Amino acid sequence: MIEARGLTFGFPREVDVLRDVHLAVADEVVALTGPSGSGKSTLLLCLAGILVPSSGTVTVAGHSFEGLDLEGRSRVRREHLGLVFQFSELIAELTLAQNVALPLELLGASSREASRRAIALMEELGIAELSSRYPAQVSGGQAQRAAVARGLVHEPAVILADEPTGALDSTTGAVVLDLLLGAARRRGAAVVMATHDRALAASADRIVDLGSLSMPVHGASEASATR
């Protein structure tokens, strides 16, 4: 689904945040763990093609970011990736349904078709009755469910989630996580999520600890890193 090979990234005048990272993810849920500053969010941004590594390659559903310009990376991201952040990052001026439908419209779907699919997914996630409300009119948990729907609506190969329940209380967070992982698994999408929450990490099929030189390897997937 998604693979990084020899990934190295560092900010100007700083030591490398990531150095020679190898990660291969199939149809599974992988939790990236490690202390603050270990590179969890940076790795996700590299996997999303938002940050460009100084060396190494990232391939998503058979499409490499290598050599692509900004528009090319954006195209791969729009077509094959779904992003879920710690805070919902919904557009305040759009209703929840319009926020969820947006990825489909960016891919060329008609407004009617995008709205139909958005509402159907919101129904699955238990927020269809909130479709006409704006982000400021719903709770944090409801907004995060809408963010999950937005990340899944175009049926991407991979969901990248950065602390997806970090802004929620434990009870609400557990509900949102179950919805995210359940919906992704039903669609055969891989999930890579960064977290410092042990309970959240325990729900994954595999844990990759970026703060350690020794990373677990399971089945056909692999993960290794040096720092």
UniProtKB/TrEMBL annotation:
GO terms for molecular function: ATP binding; ATP hydrolysis activity; transmembrane transporter activity. The keyword Cell membrane does not apply. GO terms for cellular component: plasma membrane. PROSITE patterns: ABC_TRANSPORTER_1, ABC_TRANSPORTER_2. The keyword Magnesium does not apply. This is ABC transporter ATP-binding protein. Residues 2-227 form the ABC transporter domain. InterPro entries: AAA+_ATPase (IPR003593), ABC_transporter-like_ATP-bd (IPR003439), ABC_transporter-like_CS (IPR017871), ABC_transpr_LolD-like (IPR015854), MacB-like_ATP-bd (IPR017911), P-loop_NTPase (IPR027417).
